[in-house]
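Hey everyone, long-time lurker, first post.

I ran two proteins through the pipeline my lab uses and got sequence/structure pairs for each. Pasting them in order. The first:
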Amino acid sequence: MPHGLLQWGEEFFWRRSLELSSDPTPARGPGPSIVQGGFEPCLLTVLRLSTGAVVGSVDSTKRWRKALARTGCLPRAVELACATSDGLKQGDELIALVNAAADAGDLHSAQALADSIPLRGPQDRAMVDLVAAWARAGERDRAVALAERIRYPHHWGTAWAGLAKALVDRGDVEDALRFAARADDEVRSYVFDGTGEVLAVLVEVTAAAGDQVRAAALADRVEDFARSRNRKPGSRRPSLAAVLAWEALDGDLDRIDTLLRPAPDRGGRHEAGEAGVVEAVLAWIPPSGCFLKAQDLARVLDAVAEADDPDVALALADRAERLLDTNLGSDIGPDLNLLRMSVTRLLARFGEVERAMAVLEVSGPDECAARQALIVEELAHSGRTDRAEAIARAIADDETRSRALIAVVRALAGRGDPDRAEAVVHLITDEWARGEALVAVVRALAGRGETVRAEALTHSITHRATRARALVALAELSEPARARRLAAQVVLVDGWGAAMPVLERIAPRAVAVIVDQLMA
């Protein structure tokens, strides 16, 4: 494990390492001076100058293809995607562009691109996504016609299930059930690896439509499919966990309890009679613990953690702790740690701090501090900021304490209390972490209209990459003229790449300008 990863956690460790590698922004850097004398810069000219010295390549513009598709430059994005020589990779790139254009509301261009994909496999996958997109846009007939055009049988059930889900979300219950039945017919006639996922979607659709009996029957089939096709826990797909979470939130824990029971002992040796040799051999295999493994239950816990139902959450935590205590999932060592982390997060989110600390096995003070930071993050996320701050202040390690306090600042700022959030920032000893926390304060101040105060705070952030992110957060919530000026500051502080998150909204042409400069 890299040094510092335990203290900072996945989110902050890599970002901090990258941003510390850049030079600190000078105290009187170019940001404020760009507006001296009332000068309003031409943002596109600033971008051209900033990219002029960059050597461009197809790979360096990969992350801009979707941006081009979202800003009305789909043909240019397709041109760049087709520059790759790998046909399969090209298909994946084109599918991504189809979805980017569809997400931006340009369904007709997305459809034209899908129709032009030369390989039928990628074309089918793009059409499956567009079926749901057309239905969400209210174009049911077009979605149905497109679903009828899909060639390969293993995509049929997915397409009709996606159509049914889009329709039930729009309140069209009758048609949703009709297309759910069509999807069910398809997966009955053609079973494939994704059958469990299709059935899980149909459970959600039929339950939302009020047919609980049908939903329960479909849930049974998800379990049957998991048992028959995904015996190895490492390769088991998440459809079973999705159904278990749905049932748990509906107050039904029977299936989870059944799956957590140890497999029955098959008894002694059997003679190979009418049952055959295979059955006789199976009789010798010892029980392998419960069918529901650590990875499955971790997925259920993570799904339930997002719902505000402490009774269900704590009941599932009880079961997870018993699974850990009995070691019935010990044949998957790494997944046991995954389950420990999931149950810890769940308990902390619902205020069970002592139980959360008891679940995790710690081997030293650094690991203990990291576990405390994890608990602080969950407490803050659930709104228990007073207790989160108290635990964070008590963490002995400076870096881990800084990480925990960032979580408190974010929670306070996100709940509309930037003044208290800014006060907590002053408790952070690490210089980079103070800047990271101030990004959340800047966003909160801008959200309530205090843009002058927010911009002043950005100038107090030392590291240029962190400062640029704060300016982007401010620009995203500013009126267009101010946003363009702030975006120009971002470019001068940390380059055109840092400004891209906000440019699509305030200057859509900027994406094409950057790509043209890179490819020149």
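...and the second, right after it:
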Amino acid sequence: MTTLRLTAAQAMVKWLSVQMTEEGQPFIAGVWAIFGHGNVAGLGEALHGIGPALPTWRGQNEQTMAHTAIAYAKTMNRRRAMAVTSSIGPGATNMVTAAALAHVNRVPVLLIPGDVFASRAPDPVLQQVEDFDDGTVSANDCFRPVSRYFDRISRPEHLLTALPRALRVMTDPANCGPVTLAFCQDTQAEAYDYPVEFFDPKVWYIARPEPDARELAAAVAAIKAAKSPLIVAGGGVLYSGAQEALLAFARTHNIPLVETQAGKGAVDGDEKLHFGTPGVTGTACGNELAAKADLVIGVGTRFSDFTTGSWTVFSAPNRKILSINVHGYDAAKRGAMALVSDAKVALEKISQALGTTRFADPDFAAREAWFALVDGLTALPAGNQLPSDAQVIGAVQRNTGKTSVVMSAAGTMPGALHTLLRTAKGGYHMEYGFSCMGYEIAGAMGVKLARPEADVICMVGDGSYMMANSELATAVMMGVPFTVVLTDNRGYGCINRLQKATGGAPFNNLLDDSYHVNPANIDFVTHAGSMGAHVVKAGSVQDLEAAMQAAKSARLPTVIVIDTDPMPGTGGGGSWWEVAVPEVSVRPQVQAARDAYIAGAAHQALVR
């Protein structure tokens, strides 16, 4: 057997560089790295040596580097991914939040945190977390519950089995998610004679699981027996590449559809059978259909509480759920009739079996009435009043086209965008599985790296911007242009509204309602400009629209700051959402909110 003597770190990067997609591209597009003790001497030297065959990029924070990698993989519909490496200790634990985000969203990312010495000779090493009862534990064990696959590389030959397992998980349509390879720092530098054939290029195929014949027959029978079916399209539609199959299925059988946060953009918003969105952030016309549907056809959705209105939205008597999902765990939720299959394959087979079956027209007048309402909510504000978030979204709507991608993650914007924004096919990117504040700017960079031809608009509030903004400097350094619309409502306006809606007094959310000696006065224009971005302070919605047009030709990130009113919500749509209200309180507002909570939960009980 011919061998090649390499360090474990050199072997890892060499192997990763030759793992290919069906389209002939490296599956791992590159590595985000912040070096420290634990990865600089081993992986750092190896990455330097391999050069552009496996590009290395430097970020500002381990969590946000991973967010960029996740956004890239999500935008690539999981066909390509990125790796992220950190030092041991805080560098590693900074990535745990990102791992959880990727796990919830079923998105592949390869995390390579440095780990303690396998030899244990210098224990306790700097930043080492010691478990008083378990000598095998390190800080990296935090990754176990938020990784689809976890391994600790404490010997060089471990790579021979760990690396193929890692890529198998990352390319598995059902078990796809984050992989953590905790890499002991002395092992990284240790040499081993690896078989030469280990480094032969390998093509990884994304499988399309076929449905079980019995499940397929039951699904077809359920649809034929329905009177008012409704399609709920989730992120699995995008990951399967089933957008055209979904549209053909809906049109052939005249079945209306709504899209979840992860599924929004699967179908063009102008499609007449597209009734918007369901649940807490649902359109009025979408939720009306949801309430009448006797068969809910979920396609690639997890049926989260926002999609279901905490299981109050799909409320028709004796309604049934058919869940088409590539993973049995998701397909069988809530006693659904499960069809475990790739979405594209399932839709095509069901449609073929249904033949000429067509259903009665949905209420198109309700759809038109909803969009007329939205036009009013998103119109230009009158006079000099501060605009609402809906009016800012209206400006974005008027200045985006078929090649635009609007993205966000947390706060007011996800709900408002899901409810109000009409997007073109492929024009929406929302991280709302984990709703992680601080994802937005890093995520926008990831989206733009995946789709350099797209006009990427990042919608972020001042609270989320303050949580994590440093990858703006990275985007400037790397010359990755996108537009940031930064809405300044002086605090956490979304949670302030939720606090008041559940009977609470305004407290610790808006800056003026938080403890302070000196009033907060954050200059976002100067701050963003200090990182090298082009910055505009928009004094009005009209100024915002002009700045958005100018940003389309920019070669650097553009940040447009606009002051907004924190009080209004979306102004339309939505449903009940279960947020527990205290059972005991001296405040009458809380008591009233508790009564409303109990009333809402009573409707929820009908669908359990």
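Reply from user beta_strand_b:
Welcome! Quick read of the second one: The first strand starts at residue 3 and ends at 7. The chain has four domains: 3-203, 213-364, 378-563, 578-608.
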